[in-house]
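Follow-up to my post from last week.
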Amino acid sequence: MLQRQTPSEAKEITYREAVREAIRDAFARDQRVFLMGEDVGRYGGCYAVTKGLLAEFGPERIRDTPLSESGFTGAGIGAAMAGMRPIVELMTVNFSLLALDQILNNAATIRHMSGNQFGVPLVIRLATGAGRQVAAQHSHSLEGWYAHIPGVKVLAPATIQDARGMLWTALEDPDPVLIFENVMLYNMTGKLAADAGPVDIDKAAVRRIGRDITLITYGGSLWKTLDAAATLAADNIEAEVIDLRSLRPLDDQTIMASVTKTRRAVIVDEGWRSGSLAAEVCTRIVERAFWELDAPIGRVCSEEVPIPYARHLEEAAIPQAPKIVAAAKAALART
Amino acid sequence: MSGTIDKPRLSRAHSLDLLKQMIRIRRFEEKCVELYTLEKIRGFLHLYDGEEAVAVGVIPVLEQRDRIVATYREHGQALVRGVPMTTVLAEMFGKQQGCSGGRGGSMHLFDRATNFYGGNAIVGGGLPLAVGVALADHMRGEDVVTACFFGDGAVAEGEFHESLNLAALWSLPVLLVCENNLYGMGTALAIAESETDIHLKAQSYRITAEVIDGMDVVAVEAAARRAIRAVRETSKPYFLECRTYRFRAHSMFDAQLYRDKSEVEAWRQKDPIVRFRGWLESNHMIHPEEEARIEADVAAEIAAAAAFAEAGTWEPVEHLTRFTYAEIVS
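User reply:
Got it. Predicted complex:
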């Protein structure tokens, strides 16, 4: 049931390589595009995404920065305002907190605050998510926080196709776009068409068609949710799985169409439960499709705790397939 | 050290223009106080009285193609740059005819036509942005200088140090103008900084830096000429620490408990307008009727701006969310 296209000329590729191909493609398309961040050049990128690009494009366009998140993020904003198309790589979302002033007070406000005289066509790429036993300061999932902010767009590519295709569309956008790449996906392999190119960045995707319940998720949790759907199918429960893809704006239409069909929903979100993106999606369903529902909406989020180091505790802290299965069965009053 | 090229040509016409620009700002700020009292202007209002010589000394030396990034105390910079006083005041009234469409107010004056990249109300927040604007010009090989204004308070921010390092490291054409008025809001420089000679911090990043009497418009202009020429010729940053003083409160909500009236009075003796006018008078470079004409011209411009702002209209509430994102015309 998984909606994956694998044309005959498709090649096996990792998520990491798909992002790298997207960067390379953007550099070829537009001379205004350049990339800067910590260890993106000589080191090859903390997650090896930009490996080899320094040799290919040189230090002006693959620009190693000092550990100055606010400084180089602000520089990306200024360069974008002055006509360039920068990609800022913030090594992880955890470090983006040091650049929050620039993202929130400048990138998100300047078009509105200047009466539409200046825009910030900037793309910020950030690694996000837990699962690598790197403890509480390196395991955040703060994309829901960023999705709170009017003036930015927030993307969560979960598939090889989106890792390859979202960047160029984001670079063509006249406003700042944040792309969250889940760290657990970089090594994922999949088929990508040799001529794969840009994809839309404002629609959710139905990754699995089902009739009994809608499971709504994004990013790294997509694959756990699809695993859960496979388990549910063994119990004759057909779950529809929605990959939000864009966290701001949210594609209400796709969500409501599915919930109206299945009449039940569980939202899976690696962010902490309180004030989460899952809370926003849940509220929208209640506001728009309350009378279509046959059961309370469920949520599988991270536990309200800093992410611990020990493997078994870390696994217990974030969404896992068995929890998603349990939540879906609860919504269906099945055990 | 400087050749004749860097000396301001103090022709009578130029001198009178420097004086007029400073008086223009001073009278505008006085009018703003009046309009604030009348509740025509609301929110935060930060006035530039006392610091006029900095903007007036630096900005006219820039070319039209150059760019400016300023702070929330930026009425003076905007006016000297040529943002029309009418649209500046309309902005402060919150009218849609304002230079930022009424969305920004006093602290966020933007003007694309004059490359005025806005007043930034987060202390230090404009510095990384200015570095990025200069980076864009540097990467395109364009002969453009970006002037970034900020206060002594910004020096304590990490963004100050990150930005100076990046500007020097990447050899970016940015003129860094520190308006050192001795206070970050109500906290004196000596209470906030272990090293109060701010230009030394710039020098530690290998940026050429000098200290100037920011109450002397001629000295500021001379330094600006040196600095801007150096930035153009070397494509490297240059740092001017202009020592100046804010005559009025930090904002309209400030009771000024942190400084003595005697200190303010002592600085008023160095008033850049009084001082320059006195110098012109003692050198017979200005006639009383010229002074009167400057005052009359400025008064007329302010009256016209106030009338323009008053006649301005409110943006329809239905437009509230416009320009949060670009409006794509398909």
